[in-house]
Design a protein that fits this description.
With about 500 residues, this protein is an alpha/beta fold. The protein has 3 domains: about 180 residues, tRNA modification GTPase MnmE domain 2 (Four Helix Bundle (Hemerythrin (Met), subunit A), Up-down Bundle), CATH 1.20.120.430; about 120 residues, Probable tRNA modification gtpase trme, domain 1 (Gyrase A, domain 2); about 190 residues, Rossmann fold, CATH 3.40.50.300. Helix content is about 45%, strand content about 15%. The chain is built from 18 helices and 12 strands. Strand 3 and strand 4 form a beta hairpin.
């Protein structure tokens, strides 16, 4: 039987770096929404929960776990009945926080909630919870790992169906299961290399041990590379698809924004240069979050200082965008077409983009295929088609969408086309193929991959009899890779990181 290597014994960050000590205080907070409501849920968690429950209900024994009981809620000091509601008892560790907990479901009036809070505050060692403290205790008590905590935060912030789906899958361990699988494989690799260091050649060890580790590491590298190669789909879905409407003045950009958000968000006039600053709205398109920005019309000849600043801001926003809606005036296109009968719409769009000083949007000026024309996701919206009823605007290419912002013809098709682009940009969350949605995930996985590649680079020397590889150095590369995976799920963490992750949690969660 193989003994545990000495170096692996000292390499015990998987548990020692995780501080599980929580405050001895018992905390309480309103877990339902603020303001008047039919039912208010007040959550209590901590070592003194059982005693607090008895004091506010006058029960001699704790109720049956996870069973709703109707009781009068009393003030522990005055014994005045404050309200009548349901109580649920959750003894640890089978609770959300892993501690003894209970919930009070009382009427949602502000006076009732304040009276119950006053009653709970009168009990020794009970205090109001800090933002995210219930979830933080669940993390410290190993009820959730760090990716599941982040998923829970995203679930609370989700505004669209696809955001909800991605966040919920993450709370159910879609990411942590994958990362923990990689972590377990790396732990075995570290153990094997350190065993090779600890044991003499006379000891019984499997032949080609290092070669077997190399094969496992190669497989891990491929899996991590594939995981990283999905772009930033999860991050884009989490934060919303940054979409910018671009075009010349009076092309119909603001009208398009108003139609898509179904309200007069932007001022629309026949005067060129009406839009100066960035106007941003968030929309739900097919379950995907679209952060849509209207911008100043792009033109080079203007003496208006304010308009120049608006154009500068539009160009800066374009560089950060995920999707471009390029609005083209159909009337001007038809006028151009009468003079250039032998030329195509794609030629006009190329010239149009150059006049807007958006050359960086062009990927291949020689192509006659719209799909290959752009450096980023872009839809060409041919507006004002109602002014040229004799012209056939049935463009089959899904990059070009004819519409009329005046009659709203083609808007349904535009929304469907945008929805398809959003699916390409964000992907479709699934349990089998989870997407990372945090920049820190990408950074730690990239650092992990770099350490694994260094291991593979130096481990090749094991096949050369005249060179002795430094096994201690190889083990260190694996330990660094393992440490980054530990930071992903939270087995290696810092108070600063936890503060950043929990800062957006509300009180009561």
């Amino acid at each position: 039987m193989l003994k545990l290597p000495k170096m692996l014994t000292s390499f015990n960050f998987l548990s020692s770096n995780l501080i599980r000590s929580c405050s001895s205080d018992t905390i309480f907070a309103l877990s339902s929404g603020q303001g008047k409501c039919g039912v208010a849920v007040i959550r209590i968690s901590g070592t003194n929960s059982g005693n607090a429950l008895k004091l506010v209900t006058n029960l001699s024994d704790l109720p049956k776990p996870r069973t709703a009981v109707l009781r009068s809620i009393l003030h522990p000091k005055t014994h005045e009945i404050l309200d009548k509601g349901l109580i649920l008892w959750f003894p640890g560790p089978k609770s959300f926080t892993g501690e003894d907990s209970f919930e009070l479901q009382v009427h949602g009036g502000l006076a009732v909630i304040n009276a119950v809070f006053d009653a709970l505050s009168s009990i020794p060692k009970l205090r109001l919870a800090e933002p995210g403290e219930f979830t933080k205790r669940a993390f410290h008590n190993a009820k959730l790992d760090l990716t599941e905590v982040e998923g829970l935060a995203d679930l609370l912030q989700a505004e669209t169906e696809i955001q909800r789906k991605q966040a919920f899958l993450q709370t159910q361990g879609s990411l942590s299961n994958l990362y923990n699988k990689w972590k377990k494989e790396l732990i075995k690799c570290v153990a094997s290399v350190e065993a090779h260091i600890d044991f003499d050649e006379t000891d019984t060890l499997e032949q080609n041990l290092i070669q077997e580790v190399m094969e496992i590491v190669r497989k891990l590298c491929n899996e991590i590379e594939n995981h990283l190669s999905n772009g930033h789909k999860g991050e884009i879905l989490r934060n919303g698809v940054k979409t910018v409407i671009l075009g010349e003045p009076n092309a119909g950009k603001s009208s398009l924004l108003n139609i898509l958000c179904k309200r007069p968000a932007a001022i629309v006039t026949p005067i060129e240069g009406t839009t100066r600053d960035i106007l941003e709205v968030t929309l739900n398109i097919g379950g995907y979050p679209l952060v849509l920005a209207d911008t100043a019309g792009l033109r080079s000849q203007t003496q208006d200082v304010v308009e120049k600043e608006g154009i500068s801001r539009a160009l800066k926003l374009y560089k950060k965008s995920d999707l471009v809606l390029l609005v083209v005036d159909a009337e001007k296109y038809i006028t151009w077409k009468t003079k250039n009968v032998d030329k195509t719409l794609i030629t006009y769009v190329k010239e149009y983009i150059k006049t807007l000083h958006l050359d960086s949007l062009l990927n291949d000026c020689n192509t006659e295929n719209f799909e290959r024309l752009f450096t980023k996701q872009c839809l060409v919206i041919l507006n004002k088609t109602d002014l040229k009823n004799d012209e056939n605007f049935n463009v089959r290419d899904e990059v070009v969408v004819p519409v009329s912002c005046k009659t709203e013809d083609g808007i349904t098709n535009l929304v469907q086309t945008i929805s398809k682009r959003l699916k390409v940009l964000c992907g479709e969350p699934s349990q089998d193929h989870p997407s990372m949605n945090q920049q820190r995930h990408r950074q730690h996985l990239t650092d992990c991959l770099n350490s694994l590649n260094l291991f593979l680079k130096y481990s090749h020397y094991t096949n050369q009899p005249d060179i002795s590889p430094d096994l201690v150095l190889l083990a260190e590369h694996l330990r660094k890779a393992l440490r980054h995976l530990g930071k992903l799920v939270g087995t290696v963490t810092t108070d600063n990181l936890l503060d950043i992750i929990f800062k957006d949690f509300c009180i009561g969660k």
